[in-house]
Structure formats: structure tokens, C-alpha cells
Amino acid sequence: MKNKRAFHKFTYKDSNFRLCCRDVLRVTDEIIRQRTILEDYIVRQPEFRTSLAPLRPLQDAPEIAMRMCRAGMDVGVGPMAAVAGAIAQFAAEAAVNAGEDDVIVENGGDIFTVVSNPLTIGVHAGPGSPFNGLAFRVEPEDTPLAICSSSGTMGHSMSMGACDLATVVAKDAALADAAATLAANLVTTPEDLEPTAARIVAIPGVLGVLLVKSDRMAIQGMLPELVRNADSDTLLKITRDVNSQQS
Questions:
Q1: How would DSSP label each residue in the chain?
Q2: What pTM was computed for the model?
Q3: Domain boundaries, the chain
């Protein structure tokens, strides 16, 4: 019988993380390091923090800012739409580069993972959603993989839409995060689901998308297998937003 994965909670400033790795200190140090690098960079390019439109980085920008700007340009959003995914990937890569082969970093609903055994990731579209009994089954051969989610009805992050859940799968977590942000912005009614899914899956690098609004769901592209979520503790594992009272 395979050992059950152990997760560690970590909070830094306004971000909540759940980490599965052997060397937790290495991963948390990388989170802090990348956050510091980014904050120092924003001092030099203040519009990086506030721009809602794609932004070109300074010539000597650090790698994290370059990735975020590239994702923003690919998707058509500001670079900060990619921040949670980018930090999650940098943190996971620090463990992988040190030789770990089973690493999961979740940053407020944005996940980057490399696994040696199958991983089940529950779907949560808000209290009472008929789709909360679903989960993605991620196989080792699928990874490294980013599964990033955004919502217009949960959490404190700014959204121009009313999407219950927008989940995007890609190899690049900054891209997946930015695309999930755009998807959540575009959905205000169930009729927006299919055209939005088509737009998101057409972005180069996006593998697949799942969107939920009320009692309707749209799926396009190549997603991990959707299975029934058999984990009775799923609600206890949702990363809570420190700035919101919502589930």
C-alpha cells in the first residue's frame, strides 16, 4: 500500500499555500525569495502591479517577471494575473531540481505538480455546486502540470465576471493562471460558458479548460480524467482566502 501524502500549510503575507514535498524549508524559502524578487522589481516598474493589459518587462527583469509578462501577453491580461501560478511553479521546481519526484505546490487554488504516483484534485465551484463531487485524476506521465483556477464568486481577487469556477490546465503555471483569470472575467451567465471555453482553449500552450456557472459546465481541450471524488475530507482541504469569509 502506497504511503498517504502529507501536506503542510504555509502562509506568507497575503498568500496561503499547501505543500507536499520532502524538503518543506527549501520550498518555503523559494516562495519567499521569489516574492522578494518580484516586490523589488515592482519598485522599478510600478505599473507591473496595476496594469490590466499586457505589459512588456524591463530588459533586465528577473525570470519570474519575464514569465508573468509572457503569460500576460499570450492571454491578453496584465502580468499580475499570473503571479500565483508563477510562484507555485518556481517553488515546486526548487524541490524537483533538488531531486524530489513527488511535489505538489498549491497557491490559493493554483497548483503546479510533479508526481510519481496518481494524484486526485477535487473540483470546488462554491457551496452547493452540483459539480463538487468531481475530481481530476492526474497520472505521473501527465506531469509536470499546472492546474490553475479562478472565480468571480469566491475569494477576494478582482474579477470582472461572475464565473463560479474557471480551471485551466497547462504545462506553464503562469499561463494557466492568466488564462483562468481571463476565463473568469468573461463568464457572467451560463450562455457565456461554451464561447469562453473555446476562446481559452485556443490560446497556445493551454491544454484544456473547465468552466462552471450555476448548474452548467463546459469542458474543452485535453484535461486529466474526471472521476468521482471519493475523499470525504475535501472541504477541509480547500485553501481558505485570508481576505474572504467565503468557502
A1: -PPPP--EEEEETTEEEEEE-S-HHHHHHHHHHHHHHHHHHHHH-THHHH-SS--PPPTT--HHHHHHHHHHHHHTS-GGGGHHHHHHHHHHHHHHHTT-S-EEEEETTEEEEE-SS-EEEE---STT-TTTTEEEEE-GGG-SEEEEEE-SSSSSS--SS--SEEEEEES-HHHHHHHHHHHHHH-SSGGGHHHHHHHHHTSTTEEEEEEEETTEEEEEE--PEEEE---TTGGGGSPPPTT----
A2: 0.90
A3: 8-237
pLDDT in tens, 81-140: 999 999 999 999 999 999 999 999 999 999 999 999 999 999 988 888 889 989 999 999
Give the model confidence (pLDDT) of 48-72 as tens digits: 999 999 999 999 999 999 999 999 9
CATH number corresponding to 8-237: 3.10.520.10
